[in-house]
Amino acid sequence: MALRSKFLALFLIHICLLLSLCLAADPFVSYDFEVSYITASPLGVPQQVIAINGKFPGPTINVTTNNNVAINVKNKLDENLLMHWSGIQQRRSSWQDGVLGTNCPIPPKWNWTYQFQVKDQIGSFFYFPTLHMQRASGGFGSFVINNRAIIPIPFDTPHGDIVILIGDWYKRNHTALRKALDAGKDLGMPDGVLINGKGPYQYNTTLVPDGIDSETIEVQPGKTYRIRVHNVGTSTSLNFRIQNHNLLLAESEGSYTVQQNYTSLDIHVGQSYSFLVTMDQNASADYYIVASARFVNESQWKRVTGVAILHYTNSKGKAKGPLPEAPNDEFDKTFSMNQARSIRWNVSASGARPNPQGSFRYGSINVTDVYVLKNKPLVTINGKRRATLSGISFVNPTTPIRLADQFKVKGAYKLDFPETPLTGPPKMATSVINGTYRGFMEVILQNNDTKMHSYHLSGYAVFVVGMDYGEWTENSRGTYNKWDGIARSTVQAYPGAWTAILVSLDNVGVWNLRTENLDSWYLGQETYVRIVNPEETNKTELPIPDNALFCGELSKLQKPEDISFAVSTTGNRSKLLFMLLMAVCALMSVFG
């Protein structure tokens, strides 16, 4: 019996050591996503939408700074799938970014586990599928990164946290929309705006028919809530407002802002904001939550309005009166641009680390690379309508850029994206920006199109230092905000105007730079920024994942048995710990 006790003691010591090693690292959070089609009627007409675990929209991913996150995605669609975690910087690991430049797609009936750390990030983000315009049919959800307890937030802890997903919506699914674009047609006016996957409250019986399920958000009177709003739509900028309530802006895409009150705020496609909203109004009735189309003929686009209900727990009646008005500046976008300029970085607040956000003084760093990216209306190349950046319409490679580098596949792409727009005819090419590791890049987004665009750079938060109407020139740098320009991942460029951003190229990998407007993105308005450390050390980039998928020139490396085992070993760490604990319990019962 003594021998058994000694054996058990030694076994338990080894188990404890193993558990302590596992648990000493940053905490681990895992999710399972089953991506499938379901039938829903958000605008009163049954249609095919993309759901996560049978839900539309998908569940909120809720994690804390520096958590390790594993998301096992099972593709039950009838086409390839990639999931992208918009605004998550994927430090040292563009392998997990979920776009065609870095990942082979997940085929139908396959599963694949994304694994990454939300290193030194906080804030409000969202996820969505990146292929085939699938986001126009759903598959999106919120991604929240909370502060660690030891890092103070620059406001009192809110009573609650509320997610609101807004976006324009078509009754046609993404497949039909894609076919329209392939045929050289425009998508046309959306059929409405959804709020959390639901259609508008019937504020007007002419514009809103019977039988539409709308969203109601219940709150307690006198309490302050953090409301995270994401524009997950196809291509429409939306003005967000809550009847009779001020929106105190507090954070945008991982950066705390100077706190300012707005009665409404323009939220462009792909952008995210956090507001602090105090429920300080009379509870005689509910209140309207509104997201309506911007920079359009409002008399014709009245149907493109989302309406939800803010319901106090002691409310005595239904919402009443007209909807709160949007800014009346259809033909004058100066108001919106001035509003955008007013959004500034809170340089004294701590971000994900205890040091102030303003400790990184971007305005004093010398620029090493300058790229002027010009957007124009759609052009015709080889008989097809295409969207361009600087005269180039991007063609996705059959072998992802990062994989091509890893396995030295020649001819997959070219590092020849021009610093200034092409002067000749537009062309289709797999042309990539050659970024300088640890360089400091200035990018001018010159929007010479007639509609609003927003642009996203994966892997980074960029500093928004200036915007104005007309053509950018070198003299425009005199107007830059060199102190507290907001740091974010998605920035708008107004039609007939420019936006200037600065970015510190310290994250090795291949990173997608694209328009967030799904129609233009699908038609080629994107490129990639390739950042390589010449010393090729694993300290600046993680190795290729064990579960990497292969395609294109590397298809022969994909093993058939990987179909059901495309899951990272580390991704099952929580299950491993559980199994070890069960084994300990079993042994204790035997030897007890």
UniProtKB/TrEMBL annotation:
How does the protein's chain sit in the membrane according to the entry?
Answer: Lipid-anchor; GPI-anchor
Q: Which cofactor does it need?
A: Cu cation
One GO molecular function term of this record is: oxidoreductase activity
Q: In the record, which residues are listed under signal peptide?
A: 1-24
InterPro entries on file: Cu-oxidase-like_N, Cu-oxidase_2nd, Cu-oxidase_C, Cu-oxidase_fam, Cupredoxin, CuRO_1_AAO-like
Q: Does the keyword Cytoplasm apply?
A: no
Tell me its family: Belongs to the multicopper oxidase family.
Q: What is this protein called?
A: Monocopper oxidase-like protein SKU5
Q: Which organism is it from?
A: Populus tomentosa (Chinese white poplar)
